[in-house]
Amino acid sequence: MHALVIVIALGLPVLTVALVVLLVARRGGPPHDLDATVVAARGHETRISAVAATTSVVVVVALWIAAATWGEPGVLLGAAPFAAALAFSLARAVGEARWPRPTGDVRSAPLVRRGLRDQGGWRLPLFASTAAGLAVALVVFGLTAAGDGRSVERVLDAGRETHGAGPYPGWAIGVPALLVLGLAVGATFVALRAVTRRPPIGLLSAEQDDAIRRTSAARVLAGAQLWVGLGGAAYLAFAAGALLRVDAPAGGLVCLLLALVVFVGSVVIAVTALPSRRATAAPDAQRAAAQGPTA
User: What is the DSSP annotation of the chain?
Assistant: First the structure.
């Protein structure tokens, strides 16, 4: 049984990564028509997003299956959301490496210097804040946990009575979660950097290429934000429940409110990244359109 669990937990992610390569692999040469190029580029982006999302879900399911018979209680389950974010970002990075490159005797493409902040937009600081805030919360939970690292205690009656409750995300669960969270954040920035560094798509204007690139960046950050946010909300909710059971209402209510904000915010951020970004006219083109035709 243990061998079967290990095969499932390790084999499914490997199969999904192979699926990533197959689905996003370039087939034939790039289109030579502008409209066909836009359609092909957006289709490639959609396939990358779909396969990355599927990969992350498969990783979560595999860890849930493995957690039933292997490892310390709660460790794999606690790390599962962050492992999903890691798998999502790695799958996105693989997909970014498979974008069609300009071909032909003469290659022409607009050269635009892009940075992580330019492409990430407002989602980048939100994701960084969520991950950093969660890391701080896990450290605080670890410092305030009981000796077993899985519960929280409160001393009553001048030290004569101790009231404990769990599960509480102490060091036993928090340390593995912090390690996987750090890997997930690193993989997210790797995938986002791959978006900013990929070659421009032939035949497209700088505005069209930038719109597709911003779509990719938004979906990279949205997927990572969703999984990290769900994991963070779960940790905060468990901590809130334990704190309320040991008659620490202030800390419990704060954790419960933060869990609600993180959960709702992460889901909203993920949903708003689904639509494709549209190209905006360059400043010169906008001025020309405002002035009308000239002789």
Answer: -HHHHHHHHHHHHHHHHHHHHHHHS--SSPPSSHHHHHHHHHHHHHHHHHHHHHHHHHHHHHHHHHHTTSSSTTHHHHHHHHHHHHHHHHHHHHHHTTSPPP-SSS---------HHHHHTTHHHHHHHHHHHHHHHHHHHHHHS-TTSS-EEEEEGGGTEEEEE-----HHHHHHHHHHHHHHHHHHHHHHHHHHHSPPPTT--HHHHHHHHHHHHHHHHHHHHHHHHHHHHHHHHHHHHHHHHTT-HHHHHHHHHHHHHHHHHHHHHHHHTSSPP-----HHHHHHHHH----
With beta carbons less than 8 A apart as the criterion, state whether 56 and 84 touch. Answer: yes
β-bridge partners, 164? 153
Give pLDDT, residue 288.
38
Q: Which of 153, 155, 157 is nearest to 242 (CA)?
A: 153
Residues 126-133: contacts with CB under 8 Å, at least 24 apart:
126/225, 126/265, 126/269, 127/188, 127/221, 127/224, 127/225, 127/228, 128/185, 130/225, 130/228, 130/229, 130/232, 130/262, 130/266, 131/181, 131/184, 131/185, 131/228, 133/232
Nearest-angstrom CA–CA distance, 269 and 225: 8
- Rounded CA-CA distance 41/195 in Å is 13
Given a cut of 80, whether residue 229 has pLDDT beyond it is: yes
Tell me the per-residue pLDDT of 160-208, one tens digit each, with 9 for 90 and over.
Answer: 556 667 688 889 889 999 999 999 999 999 999 988 887 777 666 777 7
Cβ atoms of 195 and 95 within 8 Å: the answer is no
- Which tokens hold the place of 244? 């309320």
42-71 average pLDDT score = 83
Domain ranges in the chain are 2-98+116-277
